[in-house]
């Protein structure tokens, strides 16, 4: 396709072209069923096959051990900010959160609606430029769980070594880095992620939950916001977002064909290194926002000397077919989101534009 944009959107974000083209072929009629997948019952055999295949592929690609349930729910990761405490924060316990940036802060604010919350570690004093070291974590006396944000989409920071929280369940918001690299799922009690960055279109949220954490919540929790509701029904308690789950399955097939989680890590590291090298070798023209040891391989955030120059960069890059490079409105600057499906060629084109822009304005 000749006129596909250089898409660096933060989410929803670029999907693999092959996946879109294949979905287009199947859009009007799915596998000789006489109808689109969107038109069929979620209780029928054709959809059920898609549903369970998507789950099986996710289990395989993330090496999810026995004893974990995979759930497909709705409401985005933002609903998980509430569902986690509603289900897991019990009276007499305190929820511990690591404050790493904008999304962790939202999770903390939401949890406070439901009970006692403690900040176990924070990089707020460093403008959220870094991920705290595991040793910085101070847990409250009776912790219900420890919550971290695996990748801060807005600041462009990412955990590399997750802390060992022993018998306290570790909860990870992996919305912006799920399946970007191999992860030891057994370290976590619960992982959640909106699909719209690495896994497909928006509309479905993945929850991976250790079975011992699935229990009847305390107090009155709406049926749809209980993990046990969805776990008992294999995510078919009510109508699931069938098309989003189908698309996630197609993206997972693409991940598998491209080397799985390890293949994604190699590809993502190469892309991220190219951009960080371009920043670091610019003699200060480009300045990376995140500390070197906390840099994200999904969201590369950087600044220029003045806001004026940043505006000019955004404008000129847009004119040349680059999309989504303006930083989040809350922090400014520039951001290139380079999720799994963003091609190395597109990242090379961006690095080329950056060098060219510098040569004209440096
Ligand atoms: N957590 C992180 C790390 C995110 O990047 C986002 C979305 N950008 C969210 C949570 C919120 O996700 P949703 O829009 O699916 O509610």
Walk me through this protein's architecture:
By secondary structure, the chain is an alpha/beta fold. It folds into two domains: 18-257, Aspartate Aminotransferase, domain 2 (3-Layer(aba) Sandwich); 259-361, Aspartate Aminotransferase, domain 1 (Alpha-Beta Complex). It is 34% helix and 17% strand. The protein contains nine helices and 14 strands. The strands form four sheets. A seven-stranded mixed beta sheet has the order 2-10-9-8-5-3-4, with helices on both faces. Helix 2 crosses helix 6 (242-257), helix 6 packs across helix 7 and helix 7 (260-280) packs parallel to helix 9 (344-361). The structure holds 4'-deoxy-4'-aminopyridoxal-5'-phosphate. 4'-deoxy-4'-aminopyridoxal-5'-phosphate binds at residues 11, 76-78, 103, 149, 153, 173, 175-176, 194. 4'-deoxy-4'-aminopyridoxal-5'-phosphate is lined by residues 11, 76-78, 103, 149, 153, 173, 175-176, 194. Pathway: Amino-acid biosynthesis; L-serine biosynthesis; L-serine from 3-phospho-D-glycerate: step 2/3. Belongs to the class-V pyridoxal-phosphate-dependent aminotransferase family. SerC subfamily. L-glutamate binds at residue 43. Homodimer.
Brief rundown of the structure:
This protein has helices at residues 17-25, 45-61, 76-88, 102-111, 227-232, 242-257, 260-280, 307-319, 344-361; strands at 6-7, 68-73, 94-99, 116-122, 143-149, 151-152, 157-158, 170-173, 190-194, 205-210, 287-288, 299-303, 322-323, 334-337. It is an alpha/beta fold.
CATH architecture of the largest domain: 3-Layer(aba) Sandwich
CATH class wording of the largest domain: Alpha Beta
Strand order of the largest sheet: 2-10-9-8-5-3-4
SSE-based structural type:
alpha/beta
Radius of gyration: 21 Å
Main beta sheet strand tally, sense and closure? 7 strands, mixed
Q: How helix-rich are the residues, as a percent range?
A: 25-40%
CATH topology of the largest domain: Aspartate Aminotransferase, domain 2
* Proportion of residues in extended strands: 15-25%
State the fourth-level CATH superfamily of the largest domain.
Type I PLP-dependent aspartate aminotransferase-like (Major domain)
The count of DSSP E runs of length 2 or more, i.e. the number of strands, is 14
Catalytic activity: O-phospho-L-serine + 2-oxoglutarate = 3-phosphooxypyruvate + L-glutamate; 4-(phosphooxy)-L-threonine + 2-oxoglutarate = (R)-3-hydroxy-2-oxo-4-phosphooxybutanoate + L-glutamate
Enzyme class: transferase
EC number: 2.6.1.52
Family: Belongs to the class-V pyridoxal-phosphate-dependent aminotransferase family. SerC subfamily.
């Amino acid at each position: 396709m000749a006129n596909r944009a250089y898409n660096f959107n933060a989410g929803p974000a670029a999907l693999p072209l092959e996946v879109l083209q294949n979905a287009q072929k199947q859009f009007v009629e799915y596998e000789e069923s006489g109808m689109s997948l969107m038109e069929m019952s979620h209780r029928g055999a054709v959809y059920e096959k898609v549903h369970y295949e998507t789950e099986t592929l996710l289990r395989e690609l993330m090496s999810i051990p026995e004893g974990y349930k995979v759930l497909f729910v709705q409401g985005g990761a933002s609903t998980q900010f509430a569902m986690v405490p509603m289900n897991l924060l019990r009276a007499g316990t305190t929820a511990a959160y690591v404050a790493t940036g904008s999304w962790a802060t939202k999770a903390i604010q939401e949890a406070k609606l439901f009970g006692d919350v403690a900040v176990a570690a924070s990089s707020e004093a460093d403008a959220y430029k870094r991920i705290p070291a595991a040793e910085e974590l101070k847990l409250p006396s009776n912790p219900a769980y420890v919550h971290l944000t695996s990748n801060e989409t807005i600041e462009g920071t990412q955990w590399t070594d997750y802390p060992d929280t022993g018998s306290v369940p570790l909860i990870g918001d992996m919305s912006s880095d799920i399946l970007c690299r191999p992860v030891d799922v057994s370290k976590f009690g619960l992982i959640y992620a909106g699909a719209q960055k690495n896994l497909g279109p928006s509309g479905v949220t993945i929850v991976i939950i250790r079975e011992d954490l699935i229990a009847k919540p305390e107090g009155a929790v709406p049926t749809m916001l209980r993990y046990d509701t969805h776990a008992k029904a294999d995510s078919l308690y009510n109508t699931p977002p069938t098309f989003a789950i189908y698309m996630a399955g197609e993206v997972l097939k693409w991940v598998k064909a491209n080397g799985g989680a390890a293949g994604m890590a190699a590809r993502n590291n190469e892309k991220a290194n190219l951009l960080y090298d371009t920043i670091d070798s610019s003699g200060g023209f480009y300045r990376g926002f995140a500390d070197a040891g906390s840099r994200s391989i999904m969201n590369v955030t950087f600044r220029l000397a003045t806001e004026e120059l940043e505006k000019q960069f955004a404008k000129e890059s847009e004119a040349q077919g680059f999309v989504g490079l303006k930083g989040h409105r809350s922090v400014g600057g520039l951001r290139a989101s380079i999720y799994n499906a963003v091609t190395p060629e597109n990242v090379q084109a961006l690095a080329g534009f950056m060098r060219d822009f510098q040569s004209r304005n440096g």
